[in-house]
Amino acid sequence: MRKELLSKKDIDRAVSRIAHEIIEKNRGLENICLVGIQSGGVHLAKRIASKIKEVEGIDLNIGSLDISFYRDDVGIRKQQPVVRSSDITCEVSGMRIILVDDVLFTGRSIRAAMDAIMDFGRPAVIQLVVLIDRGHRELPIRADYVGKNIPTALDENVEVCLAEDCAEEGVYITGSQTEGK
Amino acid sequence: MKDLVSIREISKENIESILSTAASFKAVLKRDIKKVPALRGKTVVNLFFEPSTRTKTSFELAEKRLSTDVLNFSVPTSSVVKGETLLDTVRTIESYGVDCIVIRHSSSGVPHFIAKNSHASVVNAGDGTNEHPTQALLDAFSILERKDTLDGLRIAIIGDVHHSRVAKSNIYLFSNYKSEIRLIGPPALIPEFKGYNVSYFNSIEEGIEGADVVMMLRIQSERMTKGFFPSTLEYANLWGLNRQRLKLAKKDAIVMHPGPLNRGVEITSDVADSGQSIILEQVTNGLAVRMAVMYLLGRDNEQ
Amino acid sequence: MSNKLIIKNGRVIDPSQNIDSVCDLVIEDCKISDIIPASANANSSAAVIDASGMMVMPGLIDMHAHLREPGFEHKETIASGTLAAIKGGFTSVCAMPNTNPVNDSATVTTFIIKRAMKRGSCSVYPIGAITKGQNGEELAEMGMMLEAGCVAFSDDGRPVMNALVMKRAFEYSKAFGFPLISHCEDMNLTANGVMNEGSIATLLGLAGIPRSSEETIVSRDIMLAEEAGARLHIAHVSTKGSVEIIRRAKDRGVKVTAETCPHYFTTTEEMVIGYNTNAKVNPPLRCADDIAAIKQGLRDGTIDVIATDHAPHHADEKLLEFDRAPSGISGLETALGLSLRLVDEGVLSYADLCTKMSLAPARILGLDKGTLKKGACADVVIIDPNREYSVSSDKFLSKGKNTPFEGMTLKGMPAAVVVKGKYINILEL
């Protein structure tokens, strides 16, 4: 059972709206760095940056962040993701860091990402962008910018497919075992 | 992967996963805060039955940068003296609830024995004249950084291959790649590696020709007293690496050495300190590679 | 009433009389009394053992075992070692002198003999040391040890490295006629070696023992024995080269005999892979070439004897680092099964096997054994040639559980022995 939640168009619209919200919320767009969380958030960060460039003509700093070394589920999760690189070229201290991820779920990845960022320096502010907020938070974490809120069951899986990696772009929901019965 | 006891016994996928993870750790080491909480709450014991400063320091720092709790167990005398079997030693260490045992021992095969008999992950930090897996991995990592590939290279390994666990682990590692391994040294120090694609040279001039990588091995003076070669002077004259000989290698050849150096014996100072030498990079990379090994083992061994 | 035992309907094999047929073996007053055609008539006055389908042979003689007593009773005792021997089909074992104290004096020899009489399950023949303390320097009192009961002399466990000392020993031995058993190993060539030198040693990072370590001393001792006109017995031949050297020496009439052990014709150095200390033995396990040469040597008579080199060790000692663990294989309880494979393979006939494991050792050591001739000591082994079993060191009666053959399936098992007329059912041990 695989159901489309967002189409390519929907994703474009969401990215565009989030870009505008970021511009509105961070007047002047000074000292901002968009940091995509590996791997889902990296492409989104780039898209948001290019949208902002389109609108405001400003080149934002972009970085990528791998949170493997900060996870709290080492040994709990069966399949650990491959360690990818972190690439943050700007000085983090004093910056306004905007973390970008595809799906916000338990909040644990974001906790890890914040810890990871803190080890690079002391940012002035950390904000959070997510394309999908599917609920079920286990930590007191809230996104500043949300593409779409989608209530889900715990055993469902939200899959974000972006053209950079996938043949067909879209957001899908799969795998509710209770649904079929 | 539960243990890293031997390069000969691990897959190419394992090797590549370690090397790519090491790259991430190398980035961490460039930050102001060089520590990550990756293995917070884990306990690692460094069990060194053989004196070692460099390797032990490297492991200890790697462990600390992964936020583990580190126990150092230096056992200068063998356990036999105390009437304890190796198994007793392992059981005792395990009772502390350690997650990982880093072992160096003068007897080949001890890490295998411990890995077989312990739930903890075992990392071989050098066993007898058998293997030194993390050194080979850090050598490969260093070569990869400089040459962007581990294939298609001509790698000259010069010196006492027979007693060198570093050389052996490197031979096994590079057997996974399409590189040419040349072993160079006096006949008694160059054993045959059946089933491995290596070539053998007694003349350093012939062997070093066109090499991309020149890997020097440390000459231990006790080998001389056992008559493997007549004197250090003769060794330096015939098999030492100097400027003239290095010129026979490729222009951009890199020079490596696992340390500590015997300046004037296997390598002259002008070569060791030249721009072609990456000996100090090897030390830095050793840290990243050991962090990667411990991280990957720590992650995999918990389920 | 006389003490009479009849072993009926077994296939009696006695190479000393060229007998190989189904008959009845009659034992009376601890001696072989007769071999008669198999008959159905039960002799009411005698105890009868039905050996239908079994092989009946002179009791096996192991001319090379380490019983460890005195001094290393945690490894083995005369009591446990001789029990293991019985289980393996041996009715006589020779005890090598590397005990503590070394059997280098009549006192120790006497101790061993007395202890064996009191606690032993089979005959024990001590082998005395060639040199005091097995130090390879001064000759031990071989004449007095001979009187006390030693049957041969050896510094087994180590060589007599000084050729002059060995030359003197050969010269001295001629006064008595006993053989010197040589542990052929050049300690300088062995150095710190722990397994066969070669590519496997390289891959395991273990120091190698070259074949030349054995072969140079085999050559040397043949030359010394030849020069002195004395008797030499080469212990535990492990290499192709040794077989060739011994063959040439025999061809030119040197008084040399030789033994090998089951592990040297059964398995190779590959057994060591994984740092298996139970496969650590000295001389070390070699290669397929060597196995082939040893089998050929057994076939053509170059190698006279199959001995066990039974070398029991405590389990804790084998749990050490490979290079620190002691060498040796507990061999008494697997020797016959492993040797019977040679019969299966067509390398040896049953009669040959019987010669190598009984008649030849008896002759070399001058024992009135290894035969079923009328009047000979009633030492007999009854073998069930079809019984298959899996080697399980747990079931060893030896204290030494150190075998590399754990789990191996063997065919042919001793079912019973008669030791000096006394019947022992092995299955009830």
Write the layout of secondary structure elements.
The complex is a heterotrimer of chains A (181), B (303) and C (429).
Chain A: E1 2-6, H1 8-25, E2 32-37, H2 40-56, E3 61-65, E4 96-104, H3 108-120, E5 125-133, E6 145-149, E7 157-161, E8 170-174
Parallel strand pairs in A: 2-3, 2-4, 4-5, 5-6
Antiparallel strand pairs in A: 1-8, 7-8
Helix pairs in contact in A: 1-2
Chain B: H1 12-29, E1 43-48, H2 54-65, E2 69-74, H3 86-94, E3 100-105, H4 110-117, E4 121-127, H5 133-147, E5 154-158, H6 165-174, E6 180-184, E7 198-201, H7 204-208, E8 213-216, H8 221-225, H9 232-239, H10 243-246, E9 254-256, H11 269-272, H12 279-300
Parallel strand pairs in B: 1-2, 1-3, 3-4, 5-6, 5-8, 6-7, 8-9
Chain C: E1 4-14, E2 19-28, E3 31-37, E4 47-50, E5 55-58, E6 60-65, H1 78-87, E7 90-95, H2 106-119, E8 123-128, H3 142-148, E9 152-154, H4 163-173, E10 180-182, H5 187-190, E11 195-196, H6 199-204, E12 208-209, H7 211-228, E13 232-234, H8 240-251, E14 256-260, H9 262-266, H10 288-300, E15 305-306, H11 315-318, H12 335-344, H13 350-365, E16 380-390, E17 409-419, E18 422-425
Parallel strand pairs in C: 1-4, 1-5, 6-7, 7-8, 8-9, 9-10, 10-13, 11-12, 13-14, 14-15
Antiparallel strand pairs in C: 1-2, 2-3, 5-16, 16-17, 17-18
Describe this structure in words.
The complex is a heterotrimer of chains A (181), B (303) and C (429). Chain A has 181 residues and is of the alpha/beta class. Chain A is built from 3 helices and 8 strands, in the order E-H-E-H-E-E-H-E-E-E-E. Chain A has helices at 8-25, 40-56, 108-120, and strands at residues 2-6, 32-37, 61-65, 96-104, 125-133, 145-149, 157-161, 170-174. In chain A, 37% of the residues are buried. The mean pLDDT of chain A is 90. Chain C folds into 2 domains: 4-56 and 377-428, Urease, subunit C, domain 1 (Roll); 60-365, Metal-dependent hydrolases (TIM Barrel). In chain C, helix 6 (199-204) links the parallel strand 11 (195-196) and strand 12. Chain C starts with a strand and ends with a strand. The model of chain C has no long low-confidence stretch (mean pLDDT 96). Classes of the chains: A alpha/beta (181), B alpha/beta (303), C alpha/beta (429). Chain A binds chain B through residues 66, 68-71, 74-75, 78, 80, 82-87, 115-116, 119-121, and chain B through 17, 20-21, 23-24, 27-28, 31-33, 35-39, 66, 295, 298-300, 302-303.
